[in-house]
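User: Working on a comparison across species. This one is Sporulation protein from Streptomyces jeddahensis. Can you predict its structure so I can line it up against the others?
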Amino acid sequence: MDRQETAQQMTERPPQRTPNRQLASLIAEAGFSNAGLARRVDQLGLEHGLDLRYDKTSVTRWLRGQQPRGTTPALIAEVFTRRLGRRLTAQDLGLDACAPVYAGLEFAATPEEAVDIVSGLWRKDSGSHAELRKIAFTPAGLVVPSRDWLIGRADDRVGRGEPLPAAGRVPAQGRPAGPRSLSPAAGRGTAGAERVSGQKVSSGDIAALRSVGELFRTLDHAYGGGHARQALVRYLEHEVEPMLRGTYGEQTGRRLFAAAADLTCLAGWTSFDIAAHGLAQRYFVQALRLSQAAGDRAYGSYVLVTMSRQAVYLGHGREAVQLARVAQQGVGTSAPPAVQALLHAVEARGHAVLGEVRACTASLVRAERALDGARPGDDVPHWARSFDEAQLADEFGHCHRDLQQYRAAVQHAERSLQLRPHGFARSRLLCRVVLASARLGLGELDQACRLGAEAAGQAAEMRSVRAVEYVRDFERRLEPYRDAAPVRGYRDKVAALG
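Assistant: Here's the predicted structure for Sporulation protein from Streptomyces jeddahensis:
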């Protein structure tokens, strides 16, 4: 039991003596012992940097009616959520309400709740992004959203301002329609109610959202995620949220949620690029939920493979593979060849991180065959159009580098650089670092340092932490050769960049 809680118990109101039957029932259902529950709460606390030190006596006190303090009720609820496979809150356990420990990682039950969660994230990010950058990425936070997306389906109703569905109709999430699902302002308090807009959303509004997305995406490719990320977040807060809280029919509503999902995913991608990984993870989860409201299963698969890419970057290969496979299962075999190629290539990246040569090779072969089946005129979604021969060669290069198959990595990285348009400046930079690392692996020190110096110069012109970290990874690989003349020359060039 932590010391702060002990001190609080001595100075605050005496603990409630009514036994907590809800908690007792759930402990029995989960098959926990008191010590086992305490241990799991402590372990989950460590994921969030908390040293809690609860024990079986702590759980006995909770069962007698004592209320744990701080974020502990949310941690306990998360322990039961993982064990029982359904979302539980502190109140479900007979404990005092508190902010969820995975705030922003919840997969909302209704479209209205999804708007509440994501708009709260936009507002907080717009106001204090430095604080949000410190949120940690948590692999455990991937499980429930990806599962709920896979087994879920498009919401029955997303339109606002039209007649409500017949009484007793059950929404897609399996819950009877209640006050929260019928009233946009329910549960948000005064501040939320003030944000309800009467704006009628038009096709022109949605076309504008798409155009803005393309603009920010172009800036991201060319200059890095940090260049205009905050402007994108403010746009989401000040333009997209009022639309989501406006008036629209079913068809327009689906298109609106699809556009909001795309912009939210892009906000996650730019957050990923500046190494705000916990924040990026939250944006991706909320984009996944918005895509479900849009009824766009294919875009949901794209969000999942984007989450997989982040997991690869952070070294969570197993989670990356699982996310890619969930995406494949969710979209099925009817997707266009370019989409199929993307899904298999991203799975290959996860296998490469894990050193799984056979599985990686098999996924790359499937990706290559799928892309070979693409034909001009295919109906390819906008987010998959950039997955072409250049991008596939890039994926091959990364995989072969991670598997230490350097000659193959050189071949594919060079091909990607030959084919990739110069507007994709960051992608070209990252691929050049992969090529430099592969050249180094082959013992070609002069060429490796020349390529590395070019990449370092480009990274200095971008606002991309990811680009800088790629260069630093290359420099770590140079360390065994630190006294060689090419390496000294490389360091002189980098130092001149300031």
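For your comparison, note: The domain at 390-498 is CATH 1.25.40 (Serine Threonine Protein Phosphatase 5, Tetratricopeptide repeat).

User: Helpful, thanks.
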